[in-house]
């Protein structure tokens, strides 16, 4: 699923300049502003319920994966967020699957996490409305093996590398990179190799203009309403 506005606008954790991040009001605000995608982060409880939270720990310091689903307050479930598809049309879900190679106690193994997310997507027949991204390429490999139709993107924040090389390692046709790593030459080379480029987290007119000039396919921003208005005007 592609956004209507070019470059695509992805509301980073919803609309965090106006509402709490990864909250239903924030996601609804981004959707109503016209974002092509809402971007969200997924963690798993001890009993494998999926919750939308950037951090593996609650503000109380409790590890989400150490708690039963009923003991995880303040975080919407992935099911809650995906159910917005029944209320609103014309947008997609950019789902970042959190995985911790150095801290396996923080969540299920990559293949199990991929399966849990895919099951939630399939229950709502949203295969064509999702983009799944992760820094842990094992998650992406597992998702591709489970369902090659799911669009995947390789998150990257390390040293500057050839974008197509990152995609090849992750077995994706899209990369999501911190905007400081992106320039027009790198984007052109990626496009020549058939790889799409998303930039994160891009805020403010000057940074938006830079990414537009570089030719990125999508911009992940904390201010989706502001970026949409900027693109329209």
List keywords for this structure.
233 residues; alpha/beta
Q: Can I get a quick summary?
A:
The protein has 233 residues and is α/β, with parallel strands linked by helices. Helix content is 32%, strand content 20%.
Description:
The chain is of the alpha/beta class and about 230 residues long. Helix content is about 30%, strand content about 20%. The chain has eight helices and nine strands. It has helices at about 25-35, 80, 110-125, 135-145, 165-170, 185-190, 205-215, 225-230; strands spanning about 10, 35-45, 50, 90-95, 130-135, 150-155, 175-180, 195-200, 220. The protein has an eight-stranded parallel β-barrel, surrounded by six helices. Helix 6 links the parallel strand 7 and strand 8 (about 195-200).
Q: Termini separation (Å)?
A: 24 Å
Q: Low-confidence stretches at least 5 residues in length (pLDDT < 50)?
A: none
Rg for CA atoms: 17 Å
Helical segment count: 8
Strand order of the largest sheet: 1-2-4-5-6-7-8-9
- Average pLDDT: 97
For the largest beta-sheet, the strand count, sense and barrel status come to: 8 strands, parallel, barrel
Strand content: 15-25%
Order of helices and strands: EHEEHEHEHEHEHEHEH
| Total number of beta strands | 9
**Relative helix content:** 25-40%
Which structural class should the secondary elements be placed in? alpha/beta
**Rough outline:** globular
